[in-house]
Amino acid sequence: MMPAHRTGWKPVFRLRAPATFHLAWRLIRTYQTTAMKSPSNNRKFILPAAWLITAVAAFSFGRMTSWLDEPAAEPEPRSDVREKSGSGAGWTDSANARRDGAERVGSVFSAEPGAARGGTVAEVTGGQPMENWLKKVMAQEDDLFRMQQFLRLLETLDNVDDIKAALKVIASSRGGGRGPFGSRMTEFAMLMAKFAQLDPKAAMAYAAEQEGGEKFAATYSALRAWTKNAPDAALAWAQTEGAKIKMDFGRGSGDGAQTNFALIGVLTQLARTDLEKAMAVAGRTEFGDAGGRAVDGLASELVSQRGAEGARTAAVNLPEGSFKNQIIQQLAGRLSRDDPKGTVDWVMSAATGDTKRRALGEAVDNWAEKDPAAAGTFLASQKPAPEMDSAISQYARTIAKTEPAKAWEWAQTIQDAERKTDTLGRVAGDWLRTDAAAAKQAIAASPLTDEVKQRISQPRQDAGRGGFRGGR
């Protein structure tokens, strides 16, 4: 029998294809023969009826033979609703781009774990083994159709074993994208969110058993869902047990080995509902080299919830320490996109030392892109100092494309020798492509060592890419 969700009606019996076709054809021929033998004044009624029966028979034939024990025939793609999937820039970017997948479930999750509103797994799959049914669904190319079927299953999953089995299917159904699960990250995040709703500690134990990007994805998705449902319990677990989860991203021990990524995931989610608490905990925590991930999320919430001025005030009032310095730097980069001058003025008054250097580099970077003349006027008003090095370097590299001689002069005022050499080399790369003779003359007249002169006199193939960025 055809599944009700496919058609909206339930036939009382299902004919095999040959018998259906034969019956339909006999009916059509009978009505057409009758029509031809009838008086001409009756044909105007009989002929339309014959064609109507023809259409109904053809429709019924197609309906009765379309399912054939498959999940569901894929509908015609709709370009206005298809999800664009697949081409992220590696796992980290994919995670950042799809990490909110669990939230898309919305009202799919019942108020009580396991209280599914969509019937049972067997009803959704039509009696097929869940793994087989899900593999067929994941093979569908239409993103909207695939997601509709997946959500129906997600509603019914009410035990840990079924969720683990579904996760295994997702892991083998990459969908053509990059990252640990290809373009199936949304489905994976939803499953881990449901897992955490049913049994958060079991979900975290499952995450800890994974490796590389899979471990990070599982940990992050489950912790976000746990934090929504029980923030205090999730935070307590992340501060203790979560510290034991080490990330290697498939490369062996590295930066992730010393970072509590579980706590970062909890704080990022907690900031959406309790920003004060998230900021307080972050201010007391040493995150390690990957702490920028937590700072980035908190800075984003500060701006979103309190606006530019409120974010600046909150940052200034933080206790002195690494977290405050990183927040100021993050805000400098964000706020200078819309208000570079105001942001630079704020950094000049709110920061000192290396924090000031980094934050100015971020702000002047954006200012030079929007209004290089105004950014140059500001820099000209300041005395050369180590805290201005990042800003000058970024400014010189920005104007080198249009004013290489001026950029060369600015680069020579940088105090730090390594940064100065790096900036001169990048300015020279742009200059050599537009006026090689003038560039080589300036390089020869500079006080640089012969080795450096020789090196930067060669046109760079990567000029303008990579290397130092203003905030470093």
Multimeric organization: single chain
Mean pLDDT: 77
Largest sheet: none
Helices and strands, in N-to-C order? HHHHHHHHHHHHHHHHHHHHHHHH
Question: How would the global form be characterised?
Answer: elongated
The secondary-structure class comes to mainly alpha
Helix content: 55-70%
Output the radius of gyration. 32 Å
| Alpha plus pi helix count | 24
Describe this structure in words.
The protein is mainly alpha-helical and 472 residues long. Among the domains are: 14-58; 354-472. Helices cover 64% and strands 0% of the residues. Helix 17 (340-350) runs antiparallel to helix 18 (353-370). The model is unreliable at 1-24, 57-116, 250-257 and 463-472 (pLDDT under 50).
Features:
single chain; mainly alpha; disordered C terminus; 472 residues
Walk me through the topology.
Blueprint (H helix, E strand, L loop, with lengths): L3 H4 L9 H21 L2 H25 L25 H9 L22 H5 L4 H9 L4 H14 L3 H12 L13 H14 L1 H10 L2 H18 L1 H10 L20 H13 L1 H9 L8 H25 L5 H14 L4 H11 L2 H18 L1 H9 L8 H11 L4 H8 L5 H18 L1 H10 L4 H7 L16
Helix pairs in contact: 2-3, 6-8, 8-9, 9-10, 9-11, 10-11, 11-12, 11-13, 12-13, 13-14, 13-15, 14-15, 15-16, 16-18, 17-18, 18-19, 18-20, 19-20, 20-21, 20-22, 21-22, 22-23
Describe the structure concisely:
With 472 residues, the chain is mainly alpha-helical. It has 24 helices and no strands.
